[in-house]
From TrEMBL:
Binds 1 Mn(2+) or Fe(2+) ion per subunit. Binds 1 zinc ion per subunit. InterPro entries: FUR (IPR002481), Fur_C (IPR043135), WH-like_DNA-bd_sf (IPR036388), WH_DNA-bd_sf (IPR036390). It comes from the Bacteria. GO terms for biological process: negative regulation of DNA-templated transcription; regulation of secondary metabolite biosynthetic process. PANTHER family: FERRIC UPTAKE REGULATION PROTEIN, ZINC UPTAKE REGULATION PROTEIN. This is FUR family transcriptional regulator. One of its GO terms (molecular function) is transcription cis-regulatory region binding. The keyword Transcription applies. The keyword DNA-binding applies. Its cofactor is Mn(2+); Fe(2+); Zn(2+). Belongs to the Fur family. Keywords: DNA-binding, Iron, Metal-binding, Repressor, Transcription, Transcription regulation, Zinc.
Amino acid sequence: MEERIQRVKEQLHKASYKLTPQREATVRVLLENESDHLSAEDVYLKVKDKAPEIGLATVYRTLELLAELKVVDKINFGDGVARFDLRKEGAKHFHHHMVCMECGTVDEIEEDLLDDVEKRVEREFNFKILDHRLTFHGICHRCREE
Ligand SMILES: [Zn+2]
Ligand SMILES: [Zn+2]
Ligand SMILES: [Zn+2]
């Protein structure tokens, strides 16, 4: 946790930003809820517990800044709500998601799995892949076991 905060701090410094207490509180909430996919409002409500003086606008700006610096990714699962998701450290590309159409749970796949597909796209379309978003829609293992 502290090490990751430290690394985020360095990323901010490289881009000439400071890790203010409000920004730090926001990053902590993201780290503590890493497997969730929180909306800006969700993040705000949790940050408020740590830093009651913080405003929604500040949290919004912090999230946008973190997205710009590629600390988090903004993602949308089709419900019109932007969610903020920490990038896995050291990962070249964004991780994949499985969205359950019955219970709404979002699970993550950290392994890229797309090497062959990426090679084909690059070759057949002469397209240099920098990143991707992959969301599977279906029925999760929990719902299938019921
Ligand atoms: Zn995710
Ligand atoms: Zn990939
Ligand atoms: Zn499910």
